[in-house]
Amino acid sequence: MVRVLITGITGFVGQHLAQMLLAEQSVILFGAARNLSKLSPELRRQTTCFEGNLQSKAFVVSVLQQAQPTHIYHLAGQASEPQAWSSSWDTFQTNLLPQLNLFQGMLELQLQSRFLSVGSSKVYGAATLQELPINEEKAFMPDSPYGVSKAAQDLMAQQYYLSHQLPIIRVRPFNHIGPGQSSDYVTASFARQIALAEAGLSDPNIQVGNLSAKRDFTDVRDVVAAYLLLMAQGTPGQAYNIGSGNAVAIQTILDTLLTYSQIKIETEQDLARMRPVDQPISYGDIQKINRELGWQPKISLEESLCQILNYWRQQVSQL
What we know:
The chain has helices at residues 12-24, 41-46, 57-67, 81-86, 88-109, 145-164, 186-198, 220-233, 250-259, 287-293, 301-317; strands spanning 2-7, 27-33, 48-51, 71-74, 114-118, 168-173, 175-177, 205-208, 214-215, 217-219, 239-242, 248-249, 266-269. It is built from eleven helices and 13 strands. A seven-stranded parallel β-sheet has the order 3-2-1-4-5-6-11, sandwiched between helices. α5 runs parallel beside α6 (145-164) and α7 crosses α11 (301-317). 44% of the residues are buried. It has two domains: 2-176 and 220-242, NAD(P)-binding Rossmann-like Domain (Rossmann fold); 180-215 and 246-284 and 299-317, UDP-galactose 4-epimerase, domain 1, CATH 3.90.25. Helices cover 44% and strands 17% of the residues. It has 319 residues and is an alpha/beta fold.
């Protein structure tokens, strides 16, 4: 029987991953997070959960001893870029110490769990037009504290594979979106503002940041499907980009959501939403995972955006 541990199980990606695992595979599922109150009741019933701080090595070793996982999906971390700018050191600790504790715990307990180290496309930093789409061979040039923390996490994972032969696979997802994502992120922020305006709970205008930036957006359900496939068939020691392979302007995301709106909504630029460093364009080369495993995204951007807006309409209706 496959024994799976998901760190950060209460998060946006963690809950989608847990749902897909339970639906598609016969697993004994374990989860670890700092605050389990955010976990849906359905998942709580089907999961053995551990509540605590993954920055504590004692807690991590205890979790590993009890779970004895055959597979570890390491999703826990600080994923907000704005927060990383304001709390850089906390971001470094949050994104590095838990993974270090997991690797050390695996060595101490002599576990050979297949391990998915979830990094970020932000490790690449800015790319020239000649470097687009970005493939896995591009040198790391992170231009934000968050990107630096994920680059260090990626390098640490590779080091433990090389030094200790732990079966670690690294992933570098580009922007992922979907129902349940925090409104701290751009698509969810737009959808929430539209839903509030439709319900008459706010003025019919949307606060926006830089709309000209172009990014690679993939539905979270396609992303976690890639994670499952990599854990089953991916090659330890390798890194894989996960994305759509296309660049879409933030303006296009906004315009598409507005076509679904039930009322006319204006936009207004908010300087507080602008970032200190913002790449004009970034999108990934996904040929490697497609060539080796046959993965490619299946959910269209339009379908994903429609479901995100409907999710926020449901959330707003409960206010």
